[in-house]
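Training component of the fellowship. As part of building independent skills, the fellow (R.M.) carried out the full modelling exercise for a liganded target. The chosen ligand was iron/sulfur cluster. The inputs are recorded below so that the supervisory panel can assess the work.
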Amino acid sequence: MKGADELPQWWSSTAAWRLLSCPLSAVPANEPARPSAQVLGNAGSVAHLALQQWIENGEWTREDPGMRLQGRFDEIVASHGIDISRMPQAVITRARLKSRGRELSAILAEAEPGIRTELLLTDEGNHLFGILDVAAGGAEGLIIDLKTGRDASAEPSPAIKHQMTFYAHLFQVTFGVPPKHVIVFNLQQGPAEIEVSPSAITNLLGDILTAQSMGRALARPQPDVCRFCTKRMTCEPHWKAVAAWDPPDAIEGTIVSIERSSSGLVAVSIDGHWLTGIVGSQLPDDARPGQFARAVRVRRRSDGTAPPEWAASSITEIRVLPAP
Ligand code: SF4
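Fellow's submitted model of the complex:
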């Protein structure tokens, strides 16, 4: 049996974006596979599954498509026993699905027939792959990516432009022509069509191949790239850089004390800086005064307190580690 290093490496859009942004953070896959199970851990994943079922069952052609899209969301929530009052963004995502259903339906009507969802496309020659939310081949070929969460800003970010250009490349490899329409459907802002030229696709492919040939040892700490990087906790180049970011979103140091409130929230003093609003399950069981700890995706309060205080949120991660 081959070891992990000997297996062919496959690059998703996200892995390729990381390779171009900070090579050290890039983690290619061993094969172009879908996630093994449908994980419905947030409102975005429920919305994506609702969209998939709504399209595959032809419900987008109904008289009131938004109502049915919201109904799909509700059915998934009920069948998985999800309490949407405890799932961040679930209530607003549900409402937006209803209000955006008709716009989505109008876009799909332009693309009929042959609309596919969760479509796995590959470029076998270059070992690139991606799973497109919605795709339709043919003369009016289109790809749609649904944005529901933190990446749902008004203007498509460079990361989103990269993603859609990457998908346009996979589409071109599969169908022989680039998609005519490349659409980011943002539940908050509505649809935005992104211009993806043939030269943009060629340039991206060239950049990826060049970056692959240069190896993955280089670290380039940047706030938006590091924020959700899986190597963040132990990446020393990042910890050297983060204090100078404006604003920083991580702290490290020795735990001085831990306070627990009757509501279940926890506050931790790290080198005398209080980090508050921690849900009990976010604090490692082995956290004790005197140990070294790191916390990422925290917010520095701007109330002028000295030393500054910090606030945790649902995306904060805290870990106890050996001191560097
Ligand atoms: S934490 Fe930042 S610098 Fe370190 S590997 Fe990840 S993206 Fe690169």
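The panel noted the following from the submitted structure. The first strand starts at residue 115 and ends at 123. The chain has eight helices and twelve strands.
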